[in-house]
Design a protein that fits this description.
Layout (H helix, E strand, L loop, with lengths): L5 H6 L6 H12 L4 E6 L3 H13 L3 E7 L6 H8 L6 E2 L15 E4 L6 H10 L3 E4 L7 H14 L3 E3 L7 H12 L5 E9 L15 H4 L3 H4 L1 H12 L5 E7 L12 E7 L5 E7 L4 E8 L2 E5 L10 E3 L2 E2 L7 H15 L7 H20 L3 E2 L6
Parallel strand pairs: 1-2, 1-4, 2-3, 4-5, 5-6, 7-10
Antiparallel strand pairs: 7-11, 8-9, 8-15, 9-10, 11-12, 12-13, 13-14
Helix pairs in contact: 3-11, 5-6, 6-12, 7-10, 10-12
């Protein structure tokens, strides 16, 4: 049985209660908030990360890096960013001299993650890289090596590791509260009808790599692995397209099945043409279910003993606070680059299985 590392198990915890602790810690230490630079000012940075940084107890938005000069005035005004905190992709290296910036958060299309992550690390900054981490495991390895060479921390933007519903699921599986799991079913799918603006890169092979498999499938892979609490042994998969005009570069639908120890199976669907949003784990004592599961809010969860009762949280706020705390404390991150590389290894196995039509066995996982 290929189980998760002890380090990963120790990182699981009730992060939804962490914000008051982090605020108290910062106040007691009298420390300034760490400065964050957002690299990429698209939809996610604008609607989620920027607002989250207004609320974080141990971090603040100190700089922006963008290839769209027209966006700069609004960001400067809303977040009081000085001219010295504005950079473009060409002069990114100059941020090394900005002592107000401690962390660069990379929020670009997937294909650009390796370049900007490595450049940010070489500028002497810690990095949070959005998911999925990179196109290939080899890209991930280069990013991890750059972090090690610069003695900086590289973390992945896996916000659901701070969501109380998903933490409840992880803890129940880890402790076998309802016995061993028997089967897993995960779906993250949404019918895409607008292929312009912030969706254009998602159906572009060069930038989005494999469409829904990377964009939505990474949530499925994550859910499968923290629901199983062990590594998969093999995978079968298929992909197909119905709207061929719109999906000329990447498949519209991806479906796969991971096999774990004891022959147990986990099935998944990631799609830009269907709708669905859940994690279902059948255990010896009944079903653990989060449905809907992956949104920024609105989760509903159930266990064999009843409904999960959690108040809404600002996931990105808790995520950034937790990631900053890892930097401040020097303790291992809950979501390190090695976890991101593991997930890309699984995703590439899915792609290989779908292309070949054969079962693909996984090699060694380093995390």
């Amino acid at each position: 049985m290929k189980t998760f590392s002890r380090r990963h198990a120790l990182c699981l915890g009730a992060a939804a209660t962490a914000a008051p602790f982090l605020k108290l810690r910062a106040q007691e230490a009298g420390q300034k908030k760490l400065g964050v630079a957002l690299l990429g000012l698209g939809d996610y940075a604008t609607k989620q990360l920027g607002p989250a940084l207004k609320k974080t107890s141990n971090a603040r938005l100190a700089a922006i890096i963008t290839g769209s000069p027209d966006k700069v005035p609004k960001w400067q005004q809303e977040y009081e960013i000085p001219d010295s905190g504005v950079y473009d992709y060409k002069n990114l290296e100059k941020i090394a001299d900005n002592k107000d910036v401690d962390i660069i958060y990379v929020v670009t299309p997937t294909a650009l993650h390796p370049e900007y992550t490595i450049r940010a690390l070489e500028a002497g900054k810690h990095v949070i890289c959005e998911k999925p981490m990179a196109p290939t495991p080899e890209d991930c390895a280069r990013m991890i090596k750059a972090a090690a060479d610069q003695k900086k921390m590289l973390q992945i933007g896996y916000r659901l590791h701070w969501d109380p519903f998903h933490l409840r699921l992880m803890e129940a599986i880890k402790t076998k509260e309802f016995g061993d799991w028997k089967a897993i079913d995960v779906v993250d799918a949404g019918r895409m009808n607008d292929f312009t603006r912030h969706n254009a890169w998602r159906v572009n092979k060069e930038l989005g790599i494999a469409g829904a498999l990377y964009d939505l499938g990474v949530y499925c892979v994550q859910a499968m692995l923290y629901s199983a609490q062990e590594h998969p042994l093999k995978v079968t998969a298929k992909s197909w397209t119905e709207r061929e005009k719109e999906f000329s570069q990447v498949p519209e639908h991806w479906e796969w099945e991971l096999e774990f120890s004891g022959g147990r199976k986990a099935k998944a669907l990631a799609s830009y043409g269907q709708n669905g949003n859940h994690v279902k784990v059948e255990t010896e004592k009944g079903e653990i279910r989060i449905d809907p599961a992956y949104g920024y809010s609105g989760q509903k969860g159930f266990t064999p003993t009843g409904a999960m009762d959690f108040k809404p949280v600002f996931q990105q706020q808790l995520q950034i606070e937790g990631q900053v705390e890892a930097i401040l404390s020097g303790k291992p991150s809950k979501v390190p680059g090695e976890m991101g590389r593991r997930d890309i290894q699984v995703i590439r196995g899915i792609m290989e299985a779908a292309e070949s039509g054969k079962t693909v066995e996984f090699g060694k996982f380093d995390y």
